[in-house]
Amino acid sequence: MNRRNFIAQTALVGGIASMTSFESLASTNNTDKERFKFALSQYSLRAMFKNKSLDPLDFPAFSADNFGINAIDLWEGGLPKDKLNDMSYMESLRKRSEQAGSHLFLLMAGSVDSRKSNMKGSVKRLIPSLKRAQVLGCTYLRVFLRADSLENSVETLKLLCDEAAKHKLIIAIEPGSSALSMKGAFLAEVYKKVKHPYLTLMPDFGKLKNNVYDGTQAMLPYAKTISAKMHSFDDKGRQPDFDYDRLAKIISASDYKGYIAIEWEGRKLKPIEGVLASKKLILDSFTARGATVK
């Protein structure tokens, strides 16, 4: 795919102004060919950012040219520490992405703590991340929930989503940070009780403990993006930790429409090879279900 042929998607999300994302396209055209779209997590290439062989400013074009992927899932840990509060740098990154025909649709930040003693301070600490994501032109801020109870989690996320609304950003809650929040059914229950237009869920195959299949299925009705975690491959190119054919079947049979974001975490393959192998496995698994990931 030539990155210059990528068509930027600019429809409004559920009437929420200035939120551009794949979900808006899916809401107006529900054909199978447009249900699922590849995205790439910056974390997949973390070794290249660490050894400085890849500059974050070049990442959107690099993703388009090497993987044919134009939807970018950014990671704060992959951005220069001395530039995190430099909004001119964030504007430059956004412009470089636009020049590459790409969309910085998500920024992965830290965790939010639902314990009463930490709740408000935890929300406050994420405000700089919200500001970064807004300047970057993101639709989502990806956050981990450190949940101590259902009631406190609901209260915390209402506070955080109210802050996110001020920046026209949607909070995407990913499993992790506590035993409760690693359960898809728990996060689905939290979502239903929060009832906030600026909240969504983000299944992550690597962080859903006990049963990744049930957990994913529970989260799918409330998700707009999925983290397709990859750790390693066997001799047949399969992922030994998760049955991707089974996951593709669950996702394809659901009403889910949105991103399938590659997140390569393995070490046996180098970053580029790992992402390419991940993309192939996802394509093969969804194609076997009669589905297309573009």
TrEMBL record:
Q: Where are the transmembrane segments?
A: none
- Domain Xylose isomerase-like TIM barrel residue range list: 66-275
**Which Pfam families has this protein been placed in?**
AP_endonuc_2 (PF01261)
Q: What is the annotated signal peptide range for this record?
A: none
InterPro entries the record matches: Xyl_isomerase-like_sf (IPR036237), Xyl_isomerase-like_TIM-brl (IPR013022)
Q: Which SUPFAM superfamilies match?
A: Xylose isomerase-like (SSF51658)
> What protein does this entry describe?
Xylose isomerase-like TIM barrel domain-containing protein
Q: What is the lineage of its organism?
A: Bacteria, Pseudomonadati, Lentisphaerota, Lentisphaeria, Lentisphaerales
